[in-house]
């Protein structure tokens, strides 16, 4: 039975939310984070929400010796590997850092899992592995296409490593979870997305415009082949996404070998529809201006999520409006991020 779960990157946006979901489902998460893109104070916030202060190690997953000590001190039943660099644009500027950090850490974790006989692994993959989609919705059986940036390439390579690893030792259970666009925040307003500097992603940008921290939203392109010309994505509330990890752990516990699931809502929402949802949910106006397209963006990307529902019994419960409300609540309570 899976009980103790190592959560790498467990103080980050999705990791911390998953730690809460794990605690609420009776698991014991143990967090490793190097604080590259997270704050140690998240730990106290997790305790306020759950009443539990999880064991935490400040360590870098690429540091094999440090990680070996942590594996030796604990008896892990499963690992959820969130830790990794995730900024698409930055990955184009710093490809080596992305390859070394993301692939290196995944290899260290898998190697130590083999060494310590930890047989269950969940990997944070991304819809980016589908590249430029030929059609939507995207199914797990759709081909993995050439990556458009080094960040995406690391996700494709690590998926490949996991496939080879599972083939070499069929006693391992591995879930590759392909996230679509995670947004929202914990309803308490204590945890949420806290990007460094000016946000690259749409929802944190909108939230910062909403509190007056940024003057205006730039909408990148209104000539896409979509409902209103703006890009369409599958925005999933981070609380639902966290639950998807708990559902995946249950599947691993039953013994499943390597499995792949899309985690999305199955519904596409355009940039302007998200702006409207944010305005309606929060009763405020978001000023925006239309700009040219952002390089590398695709018209539409959204998931078919039938497989996750059939095999995991998981589907999203929250709406885009819920996510807009929770994101704004978090942003208002943390105008300068999590300190
Ligand atoms: N957009 C704007 N203005 C902004 C930011 C974004 O108009 O200020 C638009 C984009 O052009 C796109 C949509 O909002 O149409 C969503 O953009 P995001 O940057 O929020 O998200 P992406 O879909 O580009 O990227 C996300 C993740 C990546 C992942 C990718 C594909 O952030 O990690 O999905 O799965 F690689």
Report what the structure shows.
The protein has 339 residues and is an alpha/beta fold. The protein has eleven helices and 14 strands. Strands 3-2-1-4-5-6-11 form a seven-stranded parallel beta sheet, sandwiched between helices. It has a three-stranded mixed beta sheet with strand order 12-9-14. A two-stranded parallel ribbon has the order 7-10. Strand 1, helix 1 and strand 2 form a beta-alpha-beta unit. Helix 1 crosses helix 8 and helix 9 crosses helix 11. The longest helix has 22 residues. It is globular and about 55 Å long. 47% of the residues are buried. The site of uridine-5'-diphosphate-4-deoxy-4-fluoro-alpha-D-galactose has 19 residues, from helix 7 and strand 8. The site of uridine-5'-diphosphate-4-deoxy-4-fluoro-alpha-D-galactose (UFG) has 19 residues, from helix 7 and strand 8.
Structural class: alpha/beta
Integer-rounded radius of gyration: 19 Å
Find the count of extended strands (DSSP E, 2+ residues).
14
Shape assignment: globular
Bound molecules: uridine-5'-diphosphate-4-deoxy-4-fluoro-alpha-D-galactose
**Portion in beta strands:** 15-25%
- In round numbers, the mean pLDDT is 98
Low-confidence stretches: none
Estimated helix fraction: 40-55%
How many separate helices? 11
The topology string of helices and strands comes to: EHEHEHEHHEHEEHEEEHEEHEEHH
Question: What's the story with the biggest beta sheet?
Answer: 7 strands, parallel
Question: Strand order, biggest sheet?
Answer: 3-2-1-4-5-6-11
Termini separation = 37 Å
């Amino acid at each position: 039975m899976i009980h103790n779960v190592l959560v790498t990157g467990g103080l980050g946006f999705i990791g911390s939310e998953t730690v809460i979901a794990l605690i609420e489902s009776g698991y014991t998460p143990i967090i490793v984070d190097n604080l590259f893109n997270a704050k140690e104070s998240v730990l106290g916030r997790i305790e306020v929400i759950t009443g539990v202060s999880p064991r935490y190690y400040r360590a870098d997953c690429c540091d094999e010796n440090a990680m070996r000590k942590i594996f030796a001190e604990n008896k892990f039943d499963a690992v959820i590997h969130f830790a990794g660099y995730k900024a698409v644009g930055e990955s184009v500027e710093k490809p080596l850092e992305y390859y070394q950090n993301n692939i290196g850490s995944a290899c260290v974790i898998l190697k130590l899992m083999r060494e310590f006989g930890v047989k269950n692994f969940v990997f944070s993959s991304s819809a980016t592995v589908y590249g430029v989609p030929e059609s939507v919705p995207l199914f797990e059986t759709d081909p993995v296409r050439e990556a458009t940036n080094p960040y995406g390439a690391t996700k494709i390579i690590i998926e490949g490593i996991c496939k080879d690893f599972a083939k070499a030792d069929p006693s391992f259970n591995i879930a590759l979870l392909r996230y679509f666009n995670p947004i929202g925040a914990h309803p308490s307003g204590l945890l949420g997305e806290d990007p460094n500097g000016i946000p690259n992603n749409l929802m944190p940008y909108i939230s910062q415009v909403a509190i007056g921290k940024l003057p205006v939203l730039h909408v990148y392109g209104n000539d896409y082949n979509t409902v209103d010309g703006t890009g369409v994505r599958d925005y999933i509330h981070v609380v639902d996404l966290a639950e998807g990890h708990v559902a995946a752990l249950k599947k691993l516990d039953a013994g499943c070998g390597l499995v792949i699931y899309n985690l999305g809502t199955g519904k596409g929402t355009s940039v302007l529809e998200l702006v409207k949802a944010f305005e309606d949910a929060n009763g405020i106006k978001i000023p925006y201006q239309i700009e040219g397209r952002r390089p590398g963006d695709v018209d539409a990307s959204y998931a078919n999520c039938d497989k996750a529902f059939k095999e995991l019994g998981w589907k999203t419960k929250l709406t885009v409006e819920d996510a807009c409300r929770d994101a704004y609540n978090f942003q208002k309570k943390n105008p300068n991020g999590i300190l």
